[in-house]
Amino acid sequence: MKNKMVTIGGIEFDLKLTFLIIYSTLVPMLDYYNHRITGTKAYDRFIFYFIIPMLIILFVMREPPQNFGFQLGNWRAGLLWVLVSCVGMGIILWFVSRTSGMQQYYSARAPSSVGRLLFLNGVELFAWEFMWRGLLLFAYARYFGPGAAIFLQAVPFAFMHLGKPEVETLSTIFGGAAFGFIAWQTQSFVYPWIIHWFIASFTTLIATGRF
User: Fold this and answer.
1) What whole-number distance in Å separates Cα of residue 195 and Cα of residue 197?
2) Residue 6 belongs to some domain of the structure
3) Could you give the CA distance from residue 48 to residue 124 in angstroms, rounded to a whole number?
4) What residues have CB less than 8 Å from 200, skipping those under 6 apart?
5) Any bridge partners for residue 12, and if so which?
6) Is residue 142 part of a domain?
7) Concatenated DSSP letters for 134-155?
8) Three-state DSSP state, 74
9) How far is residue 46's CA from residue 52's CA, in Å, rounded to a whole number?
10) Angle at the Cα of 31 from the Cα atoms of 51 and 197, rounded to 5 degrees
């Protein structure tokens, strides 16, 4: 990433880094206030968190998407992480998702069709993971190192869960960091996406009494 600097009042600003910080702050706000493009939340988020970030990579960063985790990467390690994470989280969610707060929240929002639930979750979380565990993680790692980047990208991700059941929201800084760790280890956002897709869908299916 070639640095383009501007100096204001004797302070240097890296234009690309500043742009990423502003974008990753503004977009969750637009999302929170329900700015609509298509009228379907998952499709709107696909535009906000995948289409526009991909355009940023191609035309602002001017780099191949593979530099930001858009690849299979270390697929053997990735599949192992998916297996271990889904089994471990599945056991935890089997109990946590049956609490009254989780049931009330998800029962009021879940699509009536299981197929539609799985599809919309897949579309939405593909974009989420590309934004946080793709663009932001790999960009921040260049400036701050992977350790800091893993937690920095988890901050806006965690705040996006405000309004969800407290037990879920409080866990997201750690969950987001874990997703970031897996993405960095595998050099791909794909495996956190699969895990996140499983967690979100399994949680909803249990909380709504379909399991």
Assistant:
1) 5
2) no
3) 10
4) 121, 125
5) 7
6) yes
7) IIIHHHHHHHH-HHHHHHHTHH
8) coil
9) 9
10) 65
Question: What is the identity of the amino acid at 201?
Answer: S
Gyration radius (Cα) of the chain, Å? 18
Residue 206 parent element (H or E): helix 190-207
Separation between Cα atoms, residue 136 and residue 53, nearest integer Å:
9
Residue 39's identity, in one-letter code, is G
* H or E segment and range at residue 101: helix 100-107
Q: Which of 185, 210, 208, 206 minimizes the C-alpha distance to 93? A: 206
- pLDDT tens, the chain, 211 aa long: 557 889 999 999 999 999 999 999 999 999 999 888 998 999 999 999 999 999 999 999 999 999 999 999 999 999 999 999 999 999 999 999 999 989 999 988 888 899 999 999 999 999 999 999 999 999 999 999 999 999 999 999 999 999 998 989 999 999 999 999 999 999 999 999 999 999 999 999 999 987 7
Task: Please give the helix or strand (H or E) that residue 8 lies within, else none.
Answer: strand 5-8
35: amino acid identity, one letter: H
Mapped to the 3 state alphabet, what secondary structure does 64-110 carry? CHHHHCCCCCCHHHHHHHHHHHHHHHHHHHHHHCCCHHHHHHHHCCC
DSSP string, 157-182: HHHTTBTB-HHHHHHHHHHHHHHHHH
On whether residue 78 sits in a domain, the answer given is yes
Range of the structural domain that residue 96 is part of? 64-207
Report if residue 14 sits inside a domain: no
Q: How many domains does the structure of the chain reveal?
A: 1
